[in-house]
Write a structure and sequence with these properties.
Layout (H helix, E strand, L loop, with lengths): L17 H10 L2 H17 L17 H14 L7 H14 L13 H5 L1 H16 L7 H24 L5 H19 L30 H23 L4 H13 L4 H23 L11 H4 L8 H12 L11 H4 L3 H9 L15 H20 L18 H7 L19 H16 L35 H8 L7 H7 L6 H16 L9 H15 L4 H10 L10 E2 L2 E2 L1 H9 L15 H11 L13 H15 L2 H4 L4 E2 L10 E2 L4 H14 L3 H29 L27 H8 L23 H20 L3 H15 L8 H19 L8 H20 L7 H16 L24 H16 L19 H6 L12 H6 L2 E5 L3 E6 L12 E8 L2 E8 L5 H4 L39 H4 L4 H7 L1 H31 L21 H8 L19 E4 L6 H10 L4 E10 L6 H6 L9 H10 L1 E4 L41 E6 L3 E6 L95 E8 L32 E9 L5 E6 L16 E2 L4 H19 L6 H16 L5 H8 L6
Parallel strand pairs: 10-13, 10-14, 14-15
Antiparallel strand pairs: 1-2, 3-4, 5-6, 5-9, 6-7, 7-8, 11-12, 12-13, 15-16, 16-17
Helix pairs in contact: 1-3, 2-3, 2-4, 3-6, 4-6, 4-7, 6-8, 7-9, 8-9, 8-10, 9-11, 11-13, 11-16, 16-18, 16-21, 18-21, 18-22, 21-22, 21-24, 24-26, 25-26, 26-29, 28-29, 28-31, 29-31, 29-32, 31-32, 31-33, 32-34, 33-34, 33-35, 34-36, 35-36, 41-42, 44-48, 46-47
Amino acid sequence: MFSDWPSELVPQQGWGDEAAISAFKDAIPWTVGRDFVAGTAKHLAGSLGLTKPGPPIKSKIVHDKQLQVLMPALGHGLSFPLSEIDILRDCVSVYCEWLSALLPNPKSSVPGPILSDPNHYARIIINHFYYLFVPRGAQGPDVINRQAVLCHRVLRTLQNIAQNSPCLSEDTWQTLLLFLLHINSALLSPPTIKVPDESEGAPSSTLSLNFTGDVPEDAGEQLCERVLSVLFETWLLACARCFPPPPLWNALRESCQRWRHRVGLIDQWNRINFALTRKLIGFMYGPSFPEITISAEDDLNIIPTNMSRDCIAQVWYRILHIIGNPVDLSRHTVISKTPAFLKYAISSALVIEPSQHPCLQMLPSIFLSAMKGVSGLVDAFLGVPNTSLDNLNQKGRQISPSSSFSLSAECRGEDAARLLANGRPKCNSILHLFGPWLFEAALINCNLQASPGPQHKSDVGSNAGSGSRRPVSVFAGEGSRKSSDSSAPGDSHADRLANLTPQHFQSGRAEALGALCRIFCSKKTGEEILPVYLARFYIALHQGLRQSDPSVSASHHESGHSSSSRSHGIRNGICSETAASILVNGVDLFRLDLQGVVSLVPSVLGVLECVLPEGELNAPSHLPVTLLRRAATHVLLSILPLPLHFQGLQVKEVGSNSGERLALSHLRPQLVNLLTSALQVETDPANTQMLLGGLLFCVQDAALCEVMDSISQHNFSTDRDHNIMSSGASDTVSSHGDYNSLDESCEVLSDGSLGQVGSSNFSSAATSHDSAHALFVRAIYLVCHRLISSWKSDVNVSLAGLELLSGLARLSIAEQDGLECKRAVKWLCDYIAYQCSRPPRAHSKDLHSTIVAAFHCASVWLVAHPYLLQDKECLATVLEVVELGISGSKSQVKSSDAPRLKHEKELKPASMRVRDSAEALLSCVLSQVGTFPSVCGAESLSSLLDEMTLLRHCNTWGGSDQLTRDTAAQHFRYFVAQNSIMLALLEQPLGNHQDPQPTVTALIRGPFGRVAWTMQLRHLPRHKSSAKLYTVNPGRPLPTNDVGIKHNVKPKYFPESVERIPLCKADKSIPTLESVIMNDEKSALEHDKLLQILDHQIAFEESVRRQVERETSEYPDVETECVAPPLCLEFQTARLLLSHFGFLSLDALQESVESAVPSLVALDSSMAGFARDLDVLDTTNNRTVDTAHIFYVRAGQSAPQDIMSNVVSSSSVHPHFLEFLNGLGWTVNVYQHPGWTGLTSTAFTVTSPPYDGTGPVDVNHGGSGFSGRSHVLYWSDALSEIAFVVPSPTFGQPSPGHQPSSTNNINTVGFVLDQCDRVGGGGTGGGSGSERSDSLPPYDGDVETGSSISSHTSQISYGHGNENKNRKFGRQTSAMSCNDHKVFLVWLESFDDCYTFPANELLCETVTGLESSSWKDKEANVYIIYIHALTNGLFRIKLQGQNAKLNMAGPLVDGQVVSRRVLGTLVRQTALNMCRRRRLESDSYQPPHVRRKLRIQEMVQKYRYEMNEPEFYTHLFTSPLC
């Protein structure tokens, strides 16, 4: 920069007013001069008032001539030996006091001439001070300390004058700066020496270097830090007040290059660079850019406040280059090419080369410190948080805060989400500044000549920046050979230099490689990096990855062996610093769109092969082994999809000169083996979970790839890439009948398409060890074995393993071996049994969470493989573990033991959660295995028939359209059995039952759903019912007429004459009936009633009489012909059904000791609110319900409205975005869909849309067709269901969150945010007995209190009257404690937009109606899965928000790269697993069947008939409408 300018650094012999002092010394003898100087100095110092009390005496020096005599004497005194310390002290005191003339308030002892012209005399004094700092030769530590004290005083005085003097002239500034340069040169230019211990009799010429950290005995080493700090701080002051001219800058540059063998120079250089960079970044990038952290208060104020921005920029750049090329610190021959080193070599008794001085052994640490400084500046410009000078002092720091944050398993929140500043400069800009140094440092001792074959030599290097093949390191040159050949008897210099090999500079090289990795990993989406930088970077990485450990490298070099190109970086579990630094700082290399980065895969894979499978890994001491393995795992996960994604791609390894190319597909077996081997030895929980996610991805990717290839080979599809993403939903079932299409295709292709595990003779990829079937089996064996052996005590790892097994269960793989699946279920049962059998002190919430997850995993396996229950052994194993979960023990521990009956065991489950999960598995075995999906489709596990539907199909229904739920309920009898099962019995036959048999239609509502059954009481089977066992007209025998004579005699009770007798007065004494009736109204009413009875009796007797006459008439009589009796139509079928099932016994109708509710109770359906609570029960789903909201973010967007507007048109989204949506699930119409729709107003019912919303989805939409207004994406299995909603802006249509609901829509129970302030007070029908506790939320929130990602977790219970108002059932905690969290799936065009995504602002667009009343008032937990499409067709994943205890839900891992074919499947599984982890963590969560059971118990308390046994039996004989 200043090479054309002359340096103002004159030789030391011409500095310090040498002429005047020499004249003084030559004029008088030494002793006289000493006495004169001592007396003069003592006299002048005594007048200063420093040695005796009292004010200073005013100086009597009034003429310049007096000073011309005194000042040379004082200057001569400063050159005295250190033995005259008193004279030196007096001279220093006098000069320091006289320099106060430059301050605003000078001392009174300052002579008048100096006060009148302070700058002139100050320059003379400063020149004389030089002699104080000149080294006096070899001295003891005490003497050096005395000199150091005086030097410190002078430096403090000069620094004070520079800071506070208002009158310093330009000449004085230059004199001061030159003085500081000269004293630094005098102290720091010579090599570091150490005074020998004279007691040992060592010769004075012998020099040895202190490497043990003792107090240095060299004046330059002791004063190094102080003189350098004063130099740089004063230089900065001069830049602000009197900018130094170019010759001074050139002098500073030349001087610093002569001091580079001093550690303190690099420390001060880093200190000044950081302070200047902090100021520079502050005004270049604004206050929002992360600033460098400077802890020391002095360093914060080191930059003058009045320094302009242009001045800061100029000074920053000049100071940055003041030491020249930092890489020269790795070349001891360059550092020793100074006059001071040459002088030492000439004057030394042992004639050696300058490059052989022992102090040069400090160059590795100095080089490392310089590279740390450059690396820290790189981090500062990248905006890495917590970049500070203190980090440079960490031993062996080759990992920046950004890398440590990105590799930390605990860093999942938003506080640590942004690792790099959004407004950071481009990579090219940073490389323009620091690239030459970093590339050169990264290629130390590297031979850049391409290897002719697969073998590479690693002991000779070349410079990447030079066209010629000259060595980058001097160790390959002549100086190295000289140092190794030259030695002297009795001296150890040659031995010391023999240890100074290129490997000692690997720490600094690793730091440079780490900085380069961080620069390239900071590349933004769409940013272009110059190809020349990419080429140099790849070469540097290749060389760094193949660099062996020092000891191993030396042994290989001596034996004449060279390292293989595929065995990079590590030997026998020993990791080199360069390879470790690349792994730790380059975790994102394969996650970015770096052109040609796949050429590094072979080199990286060689390092990973030695890092991950090694149980005992020897990493660099400063780097934790866990962190190194985590970085290697990140890199492995990012390259796993490459072989199958680039099947036909062949790459040429970097540095290879041969024409051989390697197909990436050939690396897949190596990657799979590496992954499984790493899982076997990994002990860190976070690393293990990451590896499990990668394993599941490998199996799923292989399975789908093979299926697609098979389909293509069999001409099932003409376009292999057609809707490749939607194939990810292969485990998806739809209500449109295409449930097993993929399974059927696999079965067609099964013949010979896939081989068995362990087959040694295979001819195609389909039969290799890395086929989908082989991976499937290996994954099951490995995970199940590790679960039982070593993972069972870690809850997070156990959950991750169980999630992987659940994902494997849903895979459709041809030629699946039933035996392997049976073993998987057996291992799951063994795992549950082991966890349950652990001692009581080991039982905890986390342990029970793993048991619950294992029961769920077993359910998934059995539903996906129903044939397993046909195996008696498997069925017995499953039922045993169910019994263990429910009761707490097995009936038969060993096969030889006698089984214990149910009533003999004590009901003592491990916990209520475990019992509930075991009950869920039992219900799944009995009702879902082999039958899912049912005829109702996968959208509903329950029957879609309800009371209204059944009543409309009844024979007696008149067809009125005014049928309501209340009216329909009146026709049913409602009973609750076992306090958990509700029976709704309809005794009227349905319209399709013409056979007059006792018929009853039952709606059975239980904890696991609603089913409808029609039952008939038959004496014969159906196939025999049509046979007639009697003759239609059997005929009649001929009648006989000899039946005798019949006499018709009518009896008389009174004689006939009694009516002719006249009445007397006595007869009239009794009043007539008419007179009595007319006088008394009550009697008239009784009379009328009596007449009615008489008329009825008369008619009855008349009919009896006629019947008797017919019976006694002569034969044949047509009316008494023998005909079949009429069929009975009144059977009281409800009573028959209950009786036949044993519910009508006296014991069943009485309360027991265990329960206050009898086994069978009747419910009063006529009570107000019954139909409403029945709807609440029906809408309490029997599966977990989750919702995920999907957003599409274009590059640079951060406004919510702009983000939602992207999905309106397909032209504004990525072409793969719609395919990704189709891979999540299938499309359903929210008004015709009986399952969950993501919104309570349309869920679980079929209603008519408020507008024309029943048509198909618009084909040109960009995702807005799944906004929930008319359609959503839906996926479900037997255990859970999830809706995927794409929020979009409204254009004239009602918003999904504000759709009007009809009176029959039962889903108004979920409340929206704008209704949160309502207070619920019972049912819509009013009436007593439906009050709620004031502490409970309103009714609108009672049914489903889940969230967008969690199942409904309502803790509400209804009371019947005041005595039951506060009664609750089951496990009760604070209501709705695990509800308010969301799952977002965010598609990013630019990955950097994940740091500015407005998650909180979009919460209002994700309301499902399940939120609690306090949802607005507290911060919601948002789980975000970011998806970024790379230009190579792969997808980068970022997870945010997993900061809970049960974190890292898989299978997706933060930073993972996945293929297009499995993206939808893995994202859906991760979203579901996030929900399950959240539910496991919540203390208040209750499974769906438990909530349904509580609903039934609440209805029992509210609507139960209070009847004794006779009243109950009487109730059975009455019609439900009576």
